[in-house]
């Protein structure tokens, strides 16, 4: 029904905002990550998702389309509703969530509000094949044992976790390895190499 609403931010609450458009104030439920990108009295564009239930209609809003897409993926998982979906997006940004899912990090996901071990396992099971492996962001601590340490083996393991074969991962890392690069940089360059190769 609504793709987005553009207007002035009139109120910022703990888990919602009010945005005014044509003298109408729309209350929109949002994540804390979206709130961080908004300022009172400033013009903003909020992407929206209309939630319709038997006894209620409400709007969920997102600062970016990327966050909206992750919300739609999360709420497609059985037993995850809009409230829990927004709670998960308050816990981590979409790219980080994608990394947790692809690396099957149950421990990290289960720390999100409203998510226990069983729910984390269900999220991974139902969404692992739907995450864009080129649009994720691993935490440095997941990628290397030290901030500047170079580890080709860890880079290969991370690429394998994204679904690439060991042969593809080893080839990409070998092509992209350079002195003084940490594991995260090797992975980024390797992904760029793999993507460029697939376009040839």
CATH superfamily placement of the largest domain: 5' to 3' exonuclease, C-terminal subdomain
The largest pleated sheet is described as: 5 strands, mixed, barrel
CATH topology-level fold name of the largest domain:
DNA polymerase, domain 1
The number of helices is 10
CATH architecture of the largest domain: Orthogonal Bundle
Shape: elongated
How much helical structure, as a percent, in the residues?
40-55%
**Strands, count:** 5
| SSE order, one letter for each helix or strand | EEEHEEHHHHHHHHH
Domains counted in the coordinates: how many? Answer: 3
Low-confidence stretches: 141-150
| Strand percent estimate | 15-25%
What strand line-up does the widest sheet have? 1-2-3-5-4
Distance between the termini: 40 Å
Overall residue-averaged pLDDT value: 85
- Oligomer type: single chain
Radius of gyration (Å): 19 Å
Query: Structural class per helix/strand content?
Result: alpha+beta
Please, could you describe this protein's structure?
There is one protein chain. Helices cover 45% and strands 20% of the residues. With 200 residues, it is of the alpha+beta class. The protein folds into three domains: 4-62, Beta Barrel (OB fold (Dihydrolipoamide Acetyltransferase, E2P)), CATH 2.40.50.140; 65-127, 5' to 3' exonuclease, C-terminal subdomain (DNA polymerase, domain 1); 140-198, Helicase, Ruva Protein, domain 3 (Orthogonal Bundle), CATH 1.10.8.10. Strand 1 and strand 2 form a beta hairpin. Helix 2 (65-74) crosses helix 3, helix 8 packs across helix 10 and helix 9 crosses helix 10.
